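Long-time lurker. I teach an intro course on protein structure, and each term I like to show students one example going from raw sequence to a predicted 3D structure in token notation. This year I'd like something fresh instead of my usual example. Would anyone be willing to generate the tokens for the chain below so I can use it in lecture? Attribution to the forum is fine with me.
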Amino acid sequence: MTRLVERTWITKTLLTLFLLSILVICAFIFRRPLAVKSIEYFTDSHNVTIQCLEFSFALPFKLEVQEACVSSPMGELSIENMTWQLWTNDLAIEEIHINHINATTSDIKASAEQQVEHLPLPQSLPWLNISSLYINSDVLVQPIKLTIKSVAETKVKITGDLSATIQVSPSYLTTDIEWRLSDLKKFIPQIQEWVRSEPQLFKKAALEQAKISTLLTFDGQTLHSQNALNISSNIAIKNCPIDVVLAGTLITNINLVDFSVEIDFNQLTNQVSLENCSFVHNYLADGDSPLLSLLIPTPLTLSGNEIKIPKLSIIDLQSTNEVEIIRVLELANLNYKTAGNLEVGYQSTLKQPIENQTTSMTNLSAEMVDFQGAGELIVDISNFKNPNAEHSLEMSGNIHISQAKLDTINIGQTRTDFVVSGKHYNDLQLSLDSHLVKLQDTDFNLQNFSNHLDLNITDLDSMSVTGHSNLTNLAIQNINFQPINITHLAQVNLQREELSSQHYVNLEQDFVLEVTQQQARINIGITEQAISRLKNTLDQIIHTLEINQGKLSASIDITLPQDSQELMAKGQANIQNLSVKYQDYLVNNINYLTPITYNSAGLQLPSANLYIDSIDVGLAISDITANVSSKNTVLGLQKVKGNIFEGEFLIPNLWLDGREQQFNVNLSNINLAEVIALQQQPGINITGKVNGILPMAINQQGLMVNNGWLASLTVGKLTINNNPSFDSIKMQQPELALLENLDFTQLESKVKFNPDGWVFFDIALKGNNPDRNQSVNFNYSHEENLYSLLESIRLVNAVGNTIEKKINQGDKK
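-- Reply from a regular --
Happy to contribute to a lecture. Here you go:
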């Protein structure tokens, strides 16, 4: 029985050994397909495929791989001639090729979802000797070639296109790398193309040859880097070379599980000097040289498709002893999504003098500009299409300013919506829609201003502009304008500093100004238009002015000052058939054509003729002519002539600047019958004409006449018949009956006029009464309030005109 059991056990043992031998032989024979299937099984979640695998075993405990090829959506890996000595843990590889492939978004997303939470780190490394490691990618100009060798049990050295040392610790890996910006130029095509297209930017070797020391630490999840920089160089930008200093440590943390990135700038100091930037200094005062610094106090984060910067500030470190200068731009909660959405809040402060140092088209200067603005910028870069397609760039957004101040100008809420589109950056279309709630200065108040502009920008250098503006509520020095519409056309060339534009300004009731600008020259043109269209504005300047008819045309050429030049304006204005009513005064058919010149001394008007058909102040003044001139904004009239009382008057010179002055009013051939008719006394008739001189004075008290005189030119006749006032006086003084029929040979009178309107006459009459054949020598004093007299005449005339108008209207019915 025992022998039978032993025989059975031996048989089973031999059978087992036989089967194991068969299994080993089969595994050896079919080692390749078994290895391929095993590897693919364990890496199935990563879509790994074994394309080729040739390996063998050798004694003692040696694995030799002649060829291995692995592919995945992320790239391809090939190994040639690898030997792994298991007993001594030596790994020698003759050649490795890694070819990175630009994966689709879905592949990357799927790969990211399959990442483990923590990558296990090796406790030790085999003794490595990789002769050639080639890393290639579509995003590289050329492959990166490396050699990797172990120099200690836990240390590996990398040489070739990149030099580094990897240290293996129980819980992390560390690497020291030293590199230059020029290394990026050799391998990254975008940087290589940028340097090639802008060779002036990196012409200073100090920038691209500056060494950067990087310390990398990897704990299985986060790749931590510390980059020590010490760069000081000049970047030669056209018209604005800048000096850049970067010193300190730039820290980055990359989470390889969720691919989030954190960049810390807090230990990196930076300065950008604009001392040699002529473009900036063209508009800054002497001695003002900005020294800018970028501050990011909290780390920048990149996660998924989003970039976040909690706070970013650009400040000016420089200051002068003469004036306080502040230049600050702060961005808060900057959020950018790779889909094209950018949101950022901003606050800016600018306080500095401006002084134009160029001979350009504009002369912008200010003793001190104080600008403060805050708001939010929202941009949607909606699409980057094929460069050959239309509108390959589309970007939209808005800028909002809650409140700002520029010198004494207060700017209320403003909002600007913009859309940028174009086939290329050198062919852009920019559309702007702006709305300003309030803009206020000492004598200026603008509310509800809206503006639309379309800009076509070519080569970032020239642009054409079309658009329109609407000013709903504008007040200047207490003058409220009705809504104003403006149409704009403009051409701009930034490189040649050329600007030309046309603006059509539509004031109230379609009164249009055409403003044409060419560089520093501006023309303001007014085609012949009815002045009555400006009724609302003129009513506020002269409250009781009423325009009945009249037309205005003008053309003014303005030369804006450049360098030490002065502001110049030349042109002409033409007023035709202007009739106005001021209070109860009527002025009919004013005609005036004059050249106009304006310079630093003020308004200059050469002598030009002014014609007025008539002025009705209660008595008729007709056929008025005068020479109008202005010197240094002092307006005056010369040779003022006209007809009054069927005679003539002449004023040699009259100033219209409000000064105290004296002048003579010369009267000739004044018809006494017309003078007496003013008093509208029945039964009194007089013939004859007089000459006279009225020495007038204008001062703070008003208008007055002292020592004026009137004298008859020829004999005349006075008759009084059935005048109740005269008859009443005659009863007390019977000798006055001699005046009822008087042939006078001489009539003289002294004249005095007071500012309150009272006029005094001392009249002397000499003649003969033919009825009684008696000589008469009569002296008489008379006073009358001229203002009241003229007012009563105007009142009577106004009533008469009203009655006549109603009668005429009745006849038409």
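Some talking points for your students: The two ends are 156 Å apart (CA to CA). The chain has a mean pLDDT of 80.
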